[in-house]
């Protein structure tokens, strides 16, 4: 007997009383929680209903479950799921329980007949509590299902429509073949259920066609007779006939009701044939043949009818996408700008002085009076308003002025506010200007000050009087508002660094003119385009920022000015023609130009602009709607049309379609940024709401639809439908809309392009977006060659490409749901499509193209079931993230300074300035791509068994959490308590700050990078976290005390109490370094250069000695480069030479300055580079290099020797690197005692470089060698270059079986010509207990070439045999060197044409 607590469920468990219900299990959890599971079958027998009831309540109780088929232990995830079910990592389903009294319940319907059992766990998310069956999964077997209506059949056409209705109800998801089959059978089961309840097939058909109940009793016998005849025609023939009808109709997309009607029409057509005496066999032979039979049978097989076809994409070489345009850096661009900053005028300087008093600036304007200026400055000191007017006008001036409470009003000022000597008139006052007594101005300034109480007055109208002549502003009164939109003024705008400042200042001066109308703004922009083009990237960035502030409604669109729509479209035409021209002549700026064009409408051909004005009258006349809101809109359109009108038109159409639901009108407006306040703010305000009669519905929808084309032709250049029409051409006729407007098709479009665009338009609203995406990208690829050719219609092609680009983004966002249960290869395919779209829109896209090649390779590896596919795809994913971050940083660097500066000048809302670049990125494909990558990442990590962490230095620590953006920004800081740093960015070359016991980061420094080595040496816990949720949780714990317990592949953390800190072993606190570390000053040994045979501890450091020791001792297949050195003491000897007396004196002064100012480090390095080489040094070095078989740089000319000498000096100067200086100071080493020898080696032009640690540094396993490999020179491995190297481990007892841990994601490789490298070799690099290695620079004589890497064609990645050979040979070389020294080694080397070279080794720390 159940306990009283369980009884509370019985009234709610409706099925519990069903005698057909079968108890599947009763469980007791934790001794106090009861769980009951029972099942019942639908009368159809095809669906099993499983009911769960548990004596436990929680708002976050979840059933974590899956189905079991046969003996397969892997969970099956049925597509038929209760509402609210979520897919958990493609491994389980999670369905929420419903609270009921003191318990919770849940109902599942199992449709798949092959599912024999359900396995599940119960999880309380809020309490992080799992409920299990004695530590195991719950397992309940489903009752055997019998089909109680097996003798009843349902016509296939009805099953198909029912399946369609189910598919539509579920949001038109993309199904796998197995899911389709399951859904189809579920639809059949639902219909069988209806039949079992007494419905006939005719009843169901009537219900579906919405004809049920309309027939009278007298018709019933006739209908039955017809149906009996109909049933003689096989369903497959009806389906083929319906397919033929559908093809003839142009393959429209039918609703379920339309589908069923089509089936019935097809049946009627065949019935008509039968009635004419044609036999079924003859009908079958007539229609069931050829291509149609193939198409239909394929659709029948897939249970899909009237579904869109997918286009076949052309096979293209991805390298054809490549764009490589060299764009100057921001610094170079600024240097090349020849325009000098204009000095401030007398009035501007006067204004600047007045602004410095600290009062809030409410408004500031400078009007032009011919060649003179008039300043009006409104400030608000201590609750009053102060209006200052100043001018450099030389004749005496009188101010004729008034006050106003609204625009256009003249009210006489109260006597109390009149300046001394003023005269009151009827509706105004007159006050005389007086000369300013400021002596610092370049010329005389006249001024006047007025103070008024801060009350109801909103502004001040005025004119000037001089010598009996009235002075006005362009024929009108001057007017200044007391409180304009300005929230920040020019004094807060900064210095404009990183911007085209002169251009932005000009824009700010012209903004008051630009805000009159779009015509003014576009014409001003056209006038400035030449200046912007000459300023290069920053100039065009300035125009983009200005235009985008306009497009996002941050600037005033229309103010006190009426303008005809055709004048706006003419101004747009002029601007877009100029943008088209620059696009053609400046390919390096095309990305910026596309962004500018996307903010500007196309402008109209054939006087389209005037049609806006004319056709609103047609709508009013045709539909008898001349008053109210339509008249107000008509007045606005006549006065100043804008992009808002497109939204208003759409809102009206939505309102009418909803049967005049006014909330729909406001919803459309508000979703597109138009509020009631904005409607009222127009010069011709819209006060009223629309109000129409039902009889006007059809005519208004027809006419507003036509009118929308006119509006979009002017305002929406990037609207897809409008852009396609402009390229494909159209002629408008009749009904008063666009009459006589003809746009010719663009000549030379690719073959089949019109059909491709038609396909896109037909499917642009599809919920399943894959076919649409393929069509959009195929269209962009076909269009691409035309965008590189000069044409007078180029801008139409550009607007089309921009529209296609934008549609890809919106389609992907609509298709996220399609990926919920998708397999990894489908998500990778979507990623490749969005990445292709981004590459098509980017100027310098080499990295993106190689990422795209990587994704294609990943998909092929996945399809071929390559065991490493997920590991390889993870590296491509990491590289893609780096590419996106790089693009975001580029936009930030180019655009944000201009947004900050111009936004402040124009008084743009601060929030809009702050998110400017972020919104630009969000509006493009990069943000969409980032979302898809984040969705795939956990899937790949799980498949590749990577977990959420990579632990680089596994040290258990306790510390307080702190969060920073960059480790670099705090590397010289000292923390006064044990600190766990969560750092967003770690590049690889940073120092670990004093007091830091752990660094946790989402960044991906190499395991053998400098910072990683130093973390292990200093016993600091260091790990990369791949899971954004874990990282967010750690960041949220800022200030809390945590214990970190890392293993080789995971980090477990927990909060601890203060008392546990004293018991922890956390180190790296200030003062923990042993004081026994000392440096011994080295003396000059009498030689400027020595050969390898002369390398001794007195002459060179361990780096040089180790490489000399290896020579002749390693196997012959391991190459050792020839070496010579400039020994210890040479730098000091050169500095003391009389040639360098001035340098020496300057250096001594700087070193003293260094004691209190570390900023002197850079000056010291620059001073060292001024050293001159004593002739004896040159001669000795030449002799040693030549006698060792090394090339002498001077043989190629004096310039080559100067390059070599500069490289030597850079090595010496690196003694004063910030990182090295602070590191020695941290351990209390005497920096003066640090001596620098220089190891000279010939550079091996490497195919690959590697670093070996002969004991695995992450796990401490001495039986395992750990190695990282990069393409090109090793500086990308040990330096601050983003991305990961290829990593592998190899057991020392099985050196021929390397195991790859990770594939490379570094986008850049360094390559160099045959050259010489000068390596630092100090006496401070290999001290026991001090991580000095890598602090100082090694400098090649020649500059390395940066190459963007393509791993998809790299044999080390793709040729398994070659990979095994090279990695094994690296491991064997490392093992041999370790045995030679008898201790773990840190080894650097390169691979050249398959041969291993070792360039240095040192003890592994």
Write out key terms for the chains shown:
single chain, 1405 residues, alpha+beta, 45 strands, 41% helix
Q: What profile does the largest beta sheet have?
A: 7 strands, mixed
Structure class: alpha+beta
Strand order of the largest sheet: 25-29-28-27-26-30-31
Number of separate strands: 45
What is the C-alpha radius of gyration, as a whole number of Å?
39 Å
Task: Bin the strand percentage.
Answer: 15-25%
Q: What separation lies between the terminal Cα atoms?
A: 69 Å
Question: In terms of per-residue confidence, which ranges show pLDDT below 50 for 5 or more consecutive residues?
Answer: 1-19, 211-231, 297-308, 485-492, 1065-1075
- Put simply, the count of helices is 44
Mean pLDDT: 83
Give the overall shape.
globular
Give the helix proportion (percent range): 40-55%
Fold blueprint:
Layout: H1 4-7, E1 22-29, E2 33-41, E3 48-54, E4 61-68, E5 86-88, E6 92-96, E7 98-100, E8 103-110, E9 117-124, E10 129-131, E11 138-141, H2 156-169, H3 177-196, H4 201-208, H5 217-230, H6 235-248, H7 256-275, H8 280-287, H9 290-302, H10 330-336, H11 346-355, E12 360-369, E13 372-380, E14 384-391, E15 398-401, E16 423-424, E17 429-432, E18 434-435, E19 446-453, E20 459-466, E21 469-471, E22 478-481, H12 501-514, H13 518-534, H14 537-551, H15 565-585, H16 590-598, H17 608-623, H18 628-640, H19 644-657, H20 662-671, H21 676-681, H22 697-715, H23 720-728, E23 730-731, E24 742-743, H24 753-762, H25 770-787, H26 794-814, H27 824-840, H28 846-863, H29 869-906, H30 910-914, H31 916-922, H32 925-943, E25 949-953, E26 957-966, E27 974-985, E28 994-1001, H33 1010-1017, E29 1021-1025, H34 1028-1036, E30 1041-1046, E31 1051-1055, E32 1090-1091, H35 1102-1110, E33 1118-1119, E34 1123-1126, H36 1130-1136, H37 1141-1154, H38 1160-1168, H39 1175-1187, H40 1198-1213, H41 1218-1226, E35 1236-1242, E36 1248-1253, E37 1264-1271, H42 1275-1278, E38 1286-1291, ...
Parallel strand pairs: 26-27, 27-28, 28-29, 33-45
Antiparallel strand pairs: 1-2, 2-3, 3-8, 4-6, 4-9, 5-6, 7-8, 9-10, 9-11, 12-13, 13-14, 14-19, 15-17, 15-20, 16-17, 18-19, 20-21, 20-22, 23-24, 25-29, 26-30, 30-31, 32-34, 34-35, 35-41, 36-37, 36-44, 37-38, 38-39, 40-43, 41-42, 44-45
Helix pairs in contact: 2-3, 2-7, 6-7, 6-9, 12-13, 12-29, 13-14, 13-15, 14-16, 14-29, 15-16, 15-17, 17-18, 17-22, 19-20, 19-22, 23-26, 24-25, 25-26, 25-27, 26-27, 27-28, 27-32, 28-29, 29-31, 29-32, 37-38, 38-40
């Amino acid at each position: 007997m159940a306990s009283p607590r369980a009884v509370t469920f019985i009234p709610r468990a409706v099925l519990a009383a069903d005698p057909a219900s079968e108890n599947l299990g009763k469980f007791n959890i934790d001794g106090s929680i009861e769980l009951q599971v029972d099942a019942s079958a639908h009368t159809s027998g095809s669906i099993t209903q499983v009911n769960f009831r548990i004596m436990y309540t929680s708002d976050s109780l979840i059933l974590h479950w899956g189905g079991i088929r046969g003996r397969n232990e892997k969970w099956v995830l049925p597509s038929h799921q209760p509402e609210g079910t979520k897919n958990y990592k493609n491994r389980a389903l999670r369905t929420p329980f419903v609270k009921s009294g003191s318990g919770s319940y849940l109902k599942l319907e199992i449709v798949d007949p092959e599912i024999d059992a359900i396995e599940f766990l119960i999880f309380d998310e809020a309490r992080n509590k799992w409920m299990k069956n004695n530590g195991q999964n719950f397992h309940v077997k489903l009752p055997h299902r019998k089909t109680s209506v097996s003798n009843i059949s349902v016509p296939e056409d009805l099953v198909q429509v029912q399946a369609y209705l189910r598919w539509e109800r579920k949001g038109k998801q993309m199904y796998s073949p197995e899911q389709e089959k399951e859904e189809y059978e579920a639809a059949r089961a639902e219909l069988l259920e209806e039949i079992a309840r007494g419905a006939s097939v005719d009843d169901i058909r009537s219900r579906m066609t919405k004809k049920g109940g309309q027939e009278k009793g007298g018709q019933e016998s006739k209908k039955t007779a017809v149906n009996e005849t109909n049933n003689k025609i096989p369903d497959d023939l009806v389906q083929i006939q319906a397919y033929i009808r559908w093809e003839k109709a142009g393959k429209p997309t039918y609703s379920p009701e339309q589908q069923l009607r089509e089936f019935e029409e097809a049946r009627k057509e065949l019935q008509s044939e039968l009635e004419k005496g044609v036999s079924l066999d003859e009908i079958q032979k007539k229609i069931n043949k050829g291509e149609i039979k193939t198409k239909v049978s394929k659709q029948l097989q897939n249970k899909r009818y009237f579904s869109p076809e997918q286009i076949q994409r052309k096979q293209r070489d991805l390298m054809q996408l490549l764009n490589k345009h060299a764009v100057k850096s921001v610094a170079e661009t600024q240097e090349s700008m020849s325009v000098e900053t204009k000095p401030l005028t007398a009035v501007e300087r006067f204004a600047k002085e007045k602004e410095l008093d600290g009062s809030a600036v409410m408004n500031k304007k400078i009007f032009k009076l011919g060649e003179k200026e008039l300043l009006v400055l409104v400030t608000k000191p201590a609750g009053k308003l102060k209006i200052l007017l100043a001018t450099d006008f030389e004749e005496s001036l009188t101010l004729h002025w008034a006050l106003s409470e609204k625009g256009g009003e003249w009210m006489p000022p109260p006597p109390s506010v009149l300046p001394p000597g003023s005269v009151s008139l009827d509706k105004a006052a007159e006050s005389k200007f007086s000369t300013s007594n400021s002596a610092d101005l370049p010329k005389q300034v006249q001024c006047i000050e007025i103070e008024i109480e801060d009350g109801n007055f909103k502004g001040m109208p005025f004119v000037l009087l001089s010598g009996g002549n009235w002075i006005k502003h362009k024929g009108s009164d001057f007017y200044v508002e007391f409180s304009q939109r300005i929230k920040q003024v020019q004094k807060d705008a900064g210095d404009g660094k990183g911007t085209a400042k002169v251009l932005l200042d000009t824009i700010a001066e012209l903004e008051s003119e630009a805000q009159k109308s779009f015509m003014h703004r576009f014409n001003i922009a056209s006038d400035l385009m030449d200046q912007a083009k000459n300023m290069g990237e920053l100039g065009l960035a300035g125009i983009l920022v200005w235009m985008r502030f306009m497009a996002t409604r941050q600037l005033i669109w229309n103010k006190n000015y009426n303008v005809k729509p055709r004048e706006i479209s003419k101004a747009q035409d002029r601007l877009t023609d100029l943008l088209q021209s620059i696009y053609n002549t400046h390919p390096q700026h095309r990305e910026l130009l596309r962004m500018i064009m996307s903010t500007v409408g196309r402008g109209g051909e054939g006087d389209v602009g005037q049609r806006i004005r004319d056709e609103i009258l047609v709508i009013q006349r045709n539909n008898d709607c001349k008053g109210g809101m339509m008249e107000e809109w008509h007045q606005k359109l006549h006065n100043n049309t804008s992009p808002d009108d497109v939204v208003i038109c759409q809102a009206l159409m939505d309102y009418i379609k909803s049967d005049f639901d006014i909330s729909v009108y406001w919803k459309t407006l508000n979703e597109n940024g138009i509020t009631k306040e904005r409607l009222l703010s127009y010069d011709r305000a819209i006060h009223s709401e629309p109000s129409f009669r039902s009889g006007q519905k059809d005519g208004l929808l027809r006419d507003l639809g036509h009118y929308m084309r006119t509006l979009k032709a002017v305002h929406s250049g990037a609207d897809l439908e409008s852009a396609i029409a402009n390229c494909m051409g159209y002629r408008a006729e009749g009904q008063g809309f666009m009459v006589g407007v003809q746009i010719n098709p663009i000549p030379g479009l690719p073959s089949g392009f019109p059909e491709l665009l038609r396909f896109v338009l037909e499917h642009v609203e599809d919920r399943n977006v894959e076919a649409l995406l393929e069509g959009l990208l195929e269209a962009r690829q076909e269009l691409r060659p035309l965008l590189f050719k000069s044409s007078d219609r180029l801008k139409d092609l550009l607007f089309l490409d921009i529209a296609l680009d934008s549609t890809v983004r919106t389609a992907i966002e609509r298709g996220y749901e399609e990926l919920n249960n998708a397999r990894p290869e489908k998500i990778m395919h979507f990623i490749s499509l969005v990445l292709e779209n981004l590459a098509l829109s980017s100027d310098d896209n080499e990295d993106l193209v190689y990422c795209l090649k990587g994704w294609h390779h990943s998909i092929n590896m996945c399809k071929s079931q390559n065991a490493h596919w997920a590991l390889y795809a993870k590296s491509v994913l990491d590289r893609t993230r780096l590419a996106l971050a790089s693009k975001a940083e580029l936009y930030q660097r180019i655009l944000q300074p201009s947004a900050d500066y111009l936004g402040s000048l124009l008084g743009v809302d601060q929030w809009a300035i702050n998110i400017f670049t972020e919104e630009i990125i969000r509006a493009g494909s990069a943000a969409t791509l980032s979302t898809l990558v984040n969705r795939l990442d956990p899937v790949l990590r799980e498949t590749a068994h990577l977990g959420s962490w990579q632990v680089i230095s596994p040290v258990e620590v306790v510390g307080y959490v702190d969060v920073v953006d960059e480790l670099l920004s705090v590397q010289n800081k000292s923390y006064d308590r044990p600190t766990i740093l969560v750092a967003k960015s770690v590049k690889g070359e940073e120092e670990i700050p004093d007091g830091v016991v752990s660094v946790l980061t989402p960044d991906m420094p190499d395991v053998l990078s400098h910072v990683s080595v130093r973390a292990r040496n200093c016993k600091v816990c260091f790990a990369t976290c791949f899971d954004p949720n874990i990282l967010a949780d750690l960041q949220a714990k800022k200030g809390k005390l945590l214990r970190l317990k890392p293993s080789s592949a995971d980090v477990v953390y927990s909060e601890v109490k203060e008392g546990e800190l004293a018991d922890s072993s956390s180190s790296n606190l200030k003062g923990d370094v042993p004081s026994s570390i000392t440096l011994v000053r080295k003396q000059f040994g009498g030689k400027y250069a020595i050969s390898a045979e002369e390398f001794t501890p007195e002459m060179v450091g361990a780096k040089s000695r180790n490489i000399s020791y290896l020579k002749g001792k390693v196997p012959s297949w391991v190459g050792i480069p020839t070496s010579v050195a400039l020994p210890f003491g040479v730098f000091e000897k050169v500095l003391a030479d009389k040639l360098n007396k001035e340098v020496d004196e300057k250096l001594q002064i700087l070193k003293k300055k260094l004691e209190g100012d570390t900023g002197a480090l850079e000056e010291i390095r620059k001073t060292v580079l001024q050293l001159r080489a004593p002739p004896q040094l040159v001669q000795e070095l030449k002799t040693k290099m030549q006698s060792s078989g090394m090339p002498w740089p001077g043989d190629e000319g004096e310039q080559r020797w100067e390059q070599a000498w500069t490289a030597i000096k850079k090595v010496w100067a690196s003694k004063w690197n910030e990182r090295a200086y602070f590191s020695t100071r941290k351990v209390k080493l005497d920096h003066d005692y640090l001596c620098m020898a220089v190891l000279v080696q010939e550079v091996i032009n490497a195919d690959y470089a590697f670093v070996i640690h002969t004991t695995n540094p992450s796990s401490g396993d001495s039986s395992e060698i750990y190695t990282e490999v990069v393409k090109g020179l090793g500086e990308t491995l040990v330096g601050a270059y983003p991305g990961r190297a290829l990593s592998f481990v190899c057991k020392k007892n099985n050196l021929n079986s390397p195991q790859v841990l990770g594939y490379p994601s570094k986008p850049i490789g360094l390559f160099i010509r045959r050259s010489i490298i000068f390596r630092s070799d100090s006496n401070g690099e290999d001290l026991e207990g001090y991580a000095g290695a890598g602090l100082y620079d090694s400098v090649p004589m020649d500059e390395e070439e940066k190459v963007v890497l393509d791993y998809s064609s790299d044999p080390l990645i793709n040729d398994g045999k070659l990979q095994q050979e090279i990695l094994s040979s690296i491991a064997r070389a490392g093992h041999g060197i370790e045995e030679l020294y008898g201790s773990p080694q840190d080894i650097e080397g390169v691979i050249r044409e398959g041969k291993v070279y070792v360039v240095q080794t040192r003890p592994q720390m």
